[in-house]
C-alpha cells in the first residue's frame, strides 16, 4: 500500500468528509492562509485561460491571496489582478473555445523573448458544445485544436506548472433552454479526447501537462446546488482553488499538515549516525546471541557414562548478561524506531486529514467507559489516590485524550476545555506524587533524580534524533520534567523539611508552607512577565531544548496554561498527609473518608462543583478568554473528582484494571501517538489500510498500543543499566551522558549551519 505519487492522487481522486471537507486519496491537504499564499507566490505570474468556469476558479484562487476581491466587471473579457506588496500577478484570459486564438496566445509564451508564466491553468469545452449545438463536427475540430496545442503546453511544462482542467458535469434539469445541448454525455466525450491527446503527447517526455480531473469528482457531489446547472457552487470552486494551491505550494512551503506533493525529507547527519548505531546494536546482539547459543551447546548437560553424574552447564557471568540485555533492548528499539520513521517520515504509508463529528468522539468514549467498568477489581489498599487508583485515572484520561486527538475534537470548544482539565490533572498528579515521595521518604539523592529524568525523557530524546524534531515539540515531557525539577529544588534546598523532621516540631510545617508560598510567588511573577520567562529559557543550551520555530513562545504558552496546577497538587498532598498523620480521615475498607454527615456534605458540594465547571466549560465561546481562566479554575473539577472518587468507601476500594493497564504506559501512549497512530506530527491520521477506515483504526491501534507497551519495558530495562545505584558507577555514566549530549549539540549546530 505505498503512497505513490501524491500529486497525482491530489489532482485525480478523493472523497468528501461531511459536506464541505475534501479528502484527497492518500495524502493531506493544507488550508492556506492569505499570508502563506502570498509567501508562496511571491514574484510569481499565474495565468488562467479559458471560459466562464475557469474564470470562477480564477476568482476563488485570487481570494486566497486577497479575500476582499469580488466578482465584478466584464465577464467576457480579460481580468488582471496584481498584489504589489508581494509582486504577484494573476491574469484571467478570456478564451472560451480551444481554437486558433487560444493556440496563438499559448504559442506566444513559448517564444524566447517573452516572459513565461510560472503557473498556467487552462480549460474549455462547454462553449464549443453550445455554439455548435453539440455537433460531432465540433468534437472533431476540438480534437484537432487540442492536438495542435498539446506540444506547446508540453514545451511550457518544462519550465512552468501547466494544468489542464477537465470539464465538470452539469445538472441537466436546471440548464436553461440555450444550454440544453450541453449534456454530460457530450462533456465526457470532450474530456476523454483531452485526456487521450495530452497523455499521448507526454508519454516519452519528462515534462508533463498535469490533468486536473479532481474537479469532476467534486462537481458530481455538489452540482445539484448550482444556481444554473452549469457553474459550481462557491464552496466547490474554493476547494478546487485550494487543491491548486497545495499542488504548487506544498513543495515550497512544506506545511506539516500538507503531505500532498511533498518530497521525502533528506536524512540528516544525526539521523544517519542513529541509523548506524542501531544497525551496529542489532549486529552486536546477533553476534553475542550466536556465541551464547554456541557455548550453551558445548556446555549442555550430558550424563557421564562412567559415574552416571550429570554435568552442569557453565553459568554466564553477570557482565555478559548485562551487555546482552543492553543490546537486546537497543535491537528492539532500533526496529521500533525504523517503524516510526517509515510511518511518519518516509512516503511509504498514506495519511489523511482529521474530520470531527460528535459521533466519532462520543461513541468511542462510551465504549471504553463500558469496557472499563466491566473490568472492576478490588484494590490492594484503600488509601486516597492509591497506586491502582492513580494508574486507573491516568489510563482513562489517556484513552480520552487519544480519542480526542484522532477525532479532531479540538475544533469543538467544550470538548477542548474538558481535555485541558485532563492535561491539568496529569500535572496535578505530578505535583502530588513527587511531593509525597520526597516528603515521606526524604530521599533527595542523585539516583532518584536520574531515574525519574531518564524514564521521562528517554523515548523523547530518541525520537528527537530519529524523527528530527526539537525537544519542545513533545511539549508534555518538557513540562513534567521542568516541574519535577522545580518540586525537587523547592524541597531539597536548605532547609530540607521532610515529614520525619516535621513530626518532631510543628514549626517545620510553617517552614514548608513558607517554601510553598515562595514558589507560588515565583510562578505568579513569571506568568505575568513574559520577557523574564523568555530570557531564562533563551540562554544556550536551554534554548536548544525549549525553542520551537526559532523562539520559546510555544513553551511559554504551554507552561502558562497550567501554571498553578502542580502547586495545587503539592498543596493537596501536604494537607492530605497531614490529615492522615493526625488520623482525621478514615481509610478503612468500605468506610467513608469522613463522618457520614461531613462526607455527604462534601460529596454534594463536589458533585455540584464538578457539574458547574462542566456547564461553564460547555458554554465557552472564546478560546482565548477561557484559556485565561483555566489555570485558576481547573483545580475545582480535579478536586471534585478526587473527592467523588474517594469519599465513599466502596468506590475507593475498587478500580478498573482495564484503565490501570493503560495508565502504566500512559506516557509512552501520549508520545508514540505523534508518529505511529496519528500522522504528520499529529496533524493527520496514519492510513495502513486504505478504503476501510474502521479496520484501519483497529489495526493501527493494535500496533500502536503494542509498541507503546514494548517501549515502556525497554525504558525500564535500560534505566536499570544506565542509572545504577552505585554512586561511583553512576557518576561515570553521567559523564558519558554529558559527553553524548555535548556531541549531539555539536552535530545539531553543524546541521543548522549546513541548512542555512
TrEMBL record:
Belongs to the PC-esterase family. CASD1 subfamily. It is a multi-pass membrane protein. This is CAS1 domain-containing protein 1. The keyword Membrane applies. Residues 22-91 form the NXPE C-terminal domain. InterPro entries: Cas1_AcylTrans_dom, NXPE4_C. It is found in: Membrane. The keyword Coiled coil does not apply. Keywords: Glycoprotein, Membrane, Transferase, Transmembrane, Transmembrane helix. The chain crosses the membrane at residues 269-291, 355-375, 395-416, 423-440, 446-466, 473-495, 507-526, 561-579, 599-617, 659-680, 692-711, 731-750. It holds the Pfam family NXPE4_C. One of its GO terms (biological process) is carbohydrate metabolic process. Residues 253-734 form the Cas1p 10 TM acyl transferase domain. GO terms for cellular component: Golgi membrane. One of its GO terms (molecular function) is N-acetylneuraminate 9-O-acetyltransferase activity.
Amino acid at each position: 500500500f505505498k503512497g505513490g505519487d501524491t500529486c497525482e492522487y491530489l489532482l485525480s481522486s478523493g472523497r468528501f468528509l461531511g459536506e464541505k471537507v475534501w479528502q484527497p486519496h492518500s495524502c493531506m491537504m493544507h488550508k492556506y492562509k492569505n499570508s502563506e499564499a502570498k509567501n508562496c507566490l511571491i514574484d510569481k505570474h499565474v495565468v488562467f485561460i479559458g471560459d466562464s468556469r475557469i474564470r470562477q476558479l480564477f476568482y476563488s484562487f485570487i481570494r486566497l491571496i486577497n479575500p476582499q476581491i469580488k466578482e465584478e466587471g466584464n465577464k467576457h473579457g480579460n481580468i488582471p489582478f496584481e498584489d504589489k506588496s508581494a509582486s504577484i500577478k494573476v491574469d484571467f484570459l478570456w478564451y472560451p473555445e480551444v481554437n486558433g486564438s487560444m493556440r496563438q496566445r499559448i504559442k506566444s509564451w513559448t517564444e524566447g523573448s517573452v516572459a513565461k508564466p510560472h503557473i498556467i491553468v487552462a480549460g474549455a469545452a462547454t462553449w464549443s458544445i453550445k455554439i455548435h449545438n453539440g455537433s460531432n463536427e465540433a468534437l472533431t475540430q476540438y480534437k484537432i485544436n487540442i492536438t495542435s496545442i498539446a506540444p506547446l503546453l508540453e514545451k511550457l511544462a518544462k519550465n512552468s506548472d501547466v494544468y489542464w482542467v477537465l470539464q465538470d458535469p452539469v445538472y441537466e434539469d436546471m440548464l436553461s433552454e440555450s444550454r440544453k445541448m450541453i449534456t454530460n454525455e457530450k462533456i465526457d466525450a470532450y474530456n476523454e479526447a483531452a485526456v487521450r491527446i495530452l497523455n499521448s503527447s507526454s508519454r516519452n517526455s519528462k515534462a508533463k501537462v498535469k490533468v486536473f480531473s479532481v474537479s469532476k469528482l467534486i462537481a458530481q457531489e455538489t452540482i445539484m446546488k448550482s444556481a444554473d446547472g452549469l457553474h459550481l457552487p462557491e464552496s466547490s470552486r474554493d476547494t478546487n482553488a485550494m487543491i491548486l494551491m497545495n499542488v504548487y505550494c506544498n513543495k515550497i512551503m512544506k506545511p506539516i499538515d500538507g503531505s500532498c506533493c511533498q518530497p521525502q525529507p533528506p536524512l540528516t547527519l544525526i539521523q544517519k549516525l542513529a541509523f548506524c548505531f542501531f544497525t551496529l546494536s542489532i549486529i552486536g546482539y546477533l553476534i553475542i546471541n550466536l556465541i551464547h547459543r554456541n557455548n550453551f551447546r558445548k556446555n549442555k548437560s550430558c550424563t557421564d557414562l562412567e559415574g552416571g553424574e550429570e554435568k552442569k552447564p557453565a553459568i554466564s557471568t553477570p557482565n555478559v548478561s548485562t551487555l546482552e540485555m543492553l543490546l537486546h533492548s537497543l535491537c528492539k528499539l532500533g526496529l521500533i524506531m525504523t517503524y516510526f520513521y517509515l510511518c511518519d517520515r518516509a512516503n511509504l504509508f498514506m495519511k489523511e486529514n482529521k474530520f470531527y463529528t460528535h459521533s466519532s468522539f462520543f461513541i468511542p468514549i462510551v465504549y471504553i467507559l463500558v469496557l472499563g467498568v466491566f473490568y472492576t477489581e478490588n484494590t490492594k489498599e484503600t488509601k486516597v489516590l492509591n497506586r491502582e487508583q492513580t494508574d486507573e485515572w491516568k489510563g482513562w484520561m489517556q484513552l480520552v485524550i487519544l480519542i480526542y486527538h484522532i477525532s479532531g475534537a479540538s475544533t469543538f470548544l467544550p470538548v477542548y476545555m474538558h481535555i485541558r482539565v485532563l492535561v491539568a490533572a496529569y500535572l496535578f498528579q505530578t505535583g502530588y506524587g513527587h511531593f509525597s515521595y520526597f516528603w515521606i521518604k526524604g530521599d533527595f539523592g542523585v539516583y532518584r533524580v536520574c531515574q525519574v529524568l531518564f524514564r521521562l525523557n528517554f523515548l523523547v530524546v530518541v525520537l528527537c534524533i530519529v524523527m528530527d524534531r526539537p525537544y519542545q515539540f513533545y511539549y508534555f515531557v518538557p513540562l513534567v520534567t521542568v516541574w519535577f525539577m522545580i518540586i525537587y529544588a523547592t524541597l531539597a534546598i536548605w532547609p530540607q523539611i521532610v515529614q520525619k523532621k516535621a513530626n518532631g516540631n510543628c514549626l517545620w510545617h510553617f517552614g514548608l508552607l513558607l517554601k510553598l508560598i515562595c514558589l507560588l510567588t515565583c510562578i505568579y511573577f513569571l506568568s505575568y512577565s513574559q520577557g523574564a520567562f523568555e530570557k531564562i529559557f533563551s540562554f544556550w543550551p536551554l534554548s536548544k531544548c525549549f525553542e520551537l520555530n526559532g523562539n520559546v513562545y510555544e513553551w511559554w504558552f504551554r507552561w502558562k496554561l497550567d501554571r498553578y496546577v502542580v502547586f495545587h497538587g503539592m498543596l493537596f498532598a501536604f494537607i492530605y498527609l497531614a490529615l492522615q498523620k493526625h488520623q482525621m480521615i478514615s481509610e478503612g475498607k468500605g468506610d467513608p473518608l469522613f463522618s457520614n454527615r461531613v462526607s455527604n456534605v462534601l460529596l454534594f458540594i463536589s458533585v455540584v462543583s464538578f457539574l458547574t465547571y462542566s456547564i461553564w466549560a460547555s458554554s465557552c465561546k472564546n478560546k482565548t478568554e477561557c484559556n485565561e481562566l483555566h489555570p485558576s479554575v481547573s483545580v475545582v473539577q480535579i478536586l471534585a473528582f478526587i473527592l467523588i472518587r474517594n469519599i465513599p468507601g466502596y468506590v475507593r476500594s475498587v478500580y478498573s484494571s482495564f484503565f490501570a493497564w493503560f495508565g502504566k504506559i500512559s506516557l509512552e501512549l501520549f508520545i508514540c501517538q505523534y508518529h505511529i497512530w496519528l500522522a504528520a506530527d499529529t496533524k493527520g491520521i496514519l492510513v495502513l489500510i486504505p478504503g476501510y477506515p474502521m479496520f484501519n483504526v483497529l489495526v493501527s491501534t493494535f500496533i500502536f498500543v503494542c509498541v507503546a507497551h514494548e517501549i515502556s519495558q525497554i525504558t525500564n530495562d535500560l534505566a536499570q543499566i544506565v542509572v545504577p545505584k552505585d554512586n561511583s558507577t553512576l557518576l561515570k555514566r553521567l559523564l558519558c551522558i554529558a559527553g553524548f549530549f555535548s556531541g549531539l549539540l555539536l552535530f545539531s549546530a553543524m546541521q543548522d549551519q549546513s541548512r542555512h
